[in-house]
């Protein structure tokens, strides 16, 4: 499938933007970095995309007869990816993710920002003195993203920033791991710590739904599960292959009163829950966000993958950092310096050493991911906590052991599958279960 990038014709030129920035600097005497803080935000403008906020029924047949309106702009192709490419051409990235092999040989890419907070606490207060997204340049922000006031999606190419009503924004990740790697930062000026709440998670689902492309996924890492910045954000990127996790077999555990189906991954090295369905998008969103809130309130680190345009969500409690701290991870795994966050757990391995790339195999990936997973016993315990929190009826015995889901697992042959890609240096796509 070819992906075509279409630019938004109405978008401001760089020249216009510079003029506006210059004006802001003259008026407000900014800090010179044209950031998002008070020093520079006065008079700033950014594109604004608003989505139709009515609680759409997820059930497709109910949408028949609902006339499909043309979106005001092609959200994924023009806005997310078109603007991302624009920033690539303007040289805002630390390296070129589409041609990074030489960088790898020079050993320069993917320098880790040193983690500036404790790894054993999932919830920690925001610290304005540490790096956060209000310090990024306005040129790194692609657009503002929020719910529409009326009944349709809208696009305003040159919208003022309402500082009093902290906007959610989509910004580039200056150290991309894939094409179109962006960050969704809910209510950026409110400086929320990395912590899921209902409203922010729903916003992330809306972004996945607006993109409407199964190859554009969002991910979330909690503190203690390899988030590196304690300022609320989701990551997202475009990669046109199915992730191994998306092909893993599942077993149905239960369906909530609101129609959200919850399953357990089977035959995958990391134990996790799968959420789909629900009578409305909000039902699905709340089931997942309430589960996340339960985990973080219990200080259990976790990762979330939002797949299939927001219709399929994976939740992984994990314990790798804890094992690391306890000295329980083997030196060979530690040597790879791979941090198993949401993308790695989903089967998209970001490898740092050339040697690891060359030796990459399903076995090696599986060995790493097995260390990430909770034990079966602990996973059952954690599921118990989650189901209590979301008030889920499981069965009369309180037993989570399992009815057969519709995706009954066959013997799934696990043969290694490398998906060749142009960024081979950066990424191994290892199919863990196919
Ligand atoms: Zn500033």
Throw out a few tags for this protein.
12 helices; disordered N terminus; alpha+beta; twelve-stranded mixed sheet; globular; 434 residues; binds zinc ion; disordered C terminus; 27% helix
Residue runs with pLDDT of under 50 for 5 or more positions: 1-16, 56-65, 101-113, 395-434
Average of per-residue pLDDT values: 80
**Category by helix and strand content:** alpha+beta
Q: Span from first to last CA?
A: 20 Å
| Associated small molecules | zinc ion
- Estimate the strand proportion: 15-25%
Total discrete domains: 1
Q: Report the helical percentage.
A: 25-40%
Largest sheet, spatial ordering of strands: 3-1-2-4-5-7-6-11-12-10-9-8
Count of DSSP strands = 14
Which of globular, elongated, flat, extended, rod-shaped describes the shape? Answer: globular
- Largest sheet, strands/sense/barrel: 12 strands, mixed
Radius of gyration: 22 Å
Protein architecture, described:
By secondary structure, this protein is of the alpha+beta class. It has one domain. The protein contains 12 helices and 14 strands. It has helices at residues 14-28, 38-41, 75-89, 101-106, 198-211, 281-297, 320-325, 331-335, 342-345, 354-358, 362-372, 376-389; strands at 45-51, 141-147, 154-160, 169-172, 182-185, 216-221, 234-238, 250-255, 260-265, 273-277, 302-307, 312-317, 348-350, 427-429. The strands form 2 sheets. A 12-stranded mixed sheet has the order 3-1-2-4-5-7-6-11-12-10-9-8. Strands 13-14 form a two-stranded antiparallel ribbon. The longest helix has 17 residues, at 281-297. The relative contact order is 0.13. The structure holds zinc ion. It comes from Nelumbo nucifera.
